[in-house]
Amino acid sequence: MVEALLPIADRVWLYPRDDDDNKLQPNVGVIIAGGQTVLVDAGNSPRTARRLLNALDAIQAPPVRYVIYTHHHWDHVFGAMVYGATTVGHDLCRKTLIEMAGKPWSHAYIQEEIQRTPAREAGLRALARAIEDWRHFRIIIPEITLSHLLRLHLDDVTVEIRHVGGQHAADSVVVQVIEARTLFVADCYYPPPAHQRRPDSALDAELIAALVKDDIEIYIDGHGSPRTRDEFARLTQEGRSTNGCG
Ligand SMILES: [Zn+2]
After folding, report:
1. Rounded to whole angstroms, how far apart are CA atoms 91 and 84?
2. Is the CB of residue 189 less than 8 Å from the CB of residue 221?
3. CA of 156 to the centre of ligand 1 (A)
4. Distance 246 CA to ligand 1 centre (A)
5. Cα–Cα distance measured from residue 236 to residue 232, given in angstroms and rounded to the nearest whole number
6. Residue 182 three-state SS
7. What pLDDT does residue 245 have?
């Protein structure tokens, strides 16, 4: 269980992923500027989101105003109902979450989904562990959407949200905190989710190469530790990975 925020750069923190892969609890980015807090992803469940709020309280962070969804996968989105914040995501993220919000979420529904798509079993079992009580659960649909690019101006800090798509999720965006030289890339360069993966699925080397830029020093993905630019660039040599969610 994660208790505390990790400082990353000026005005940027990380609520780090849970090392236990069975929990499927990814990184959540925290940007504090202009008297407000912006989150990059929502945490995988209301329980995780409440822990994150406690961690924000411990550093006396201002209220959460925006939650930016990097993509629609549940482990990045399902904590959002706790914050009462404005949610931001790609047009396609909104469309997909509207469809997902129409499903009869419950433990019985998750069992049916496992029967329908056995390749999703590990992820769905993690979801069943993450959310024990579905009675008051709600998916929060993005209220602000982008098709290509959106900037949030928080006093002297600029947060740039850019659509990159890719094989992991077509709605993937990356979030750059310009002055902090930090880029949240979430899962965009990962292989497709388990049930869409082929034996030859690999990291998206082309997308990784496109994201390597001189004005970015820190790269934070969805399910790993923060990386320097060189470490991120070297990922292209790693090739195959089992990383990812869905
Ligand atoms: Zn994902």
Report:
1. 21
2. yes
3. 31
4. 5
5. 8
6. strand
7. 54
Please identify which residue in the block is written with the tokens 């790693």: 238
Q: Rounded distance, CA 9 to CA 49, Å?
A: 22
Please name which of 207, 202, 196, 209 lies closest in space to residue 242, comparing C-alpha atoms: 202
Distance 52 CA to ligand 1 centre (A): 20
- The mean pLDDT of 179-206, rounded to a whole number, is 94
Cα dihedral across residues 131, 100, 173, 191: positive or negative? positive
| Residues contacting 20, CB < 8 A, separation 6+ | none
Q: For the residues 119-132, what does the mean pLDDT come to?
A: 95
Q: Which residue has the tokens 């080397």?
A: 205
Q: What's the pTM? A: 0.95
Name all domains of the chain by residue range, CATH numbers in brackets: 6-237 (3.60.15.10)
Q: Are 39 and 27 in contact (CB under 8 A)?
A: no
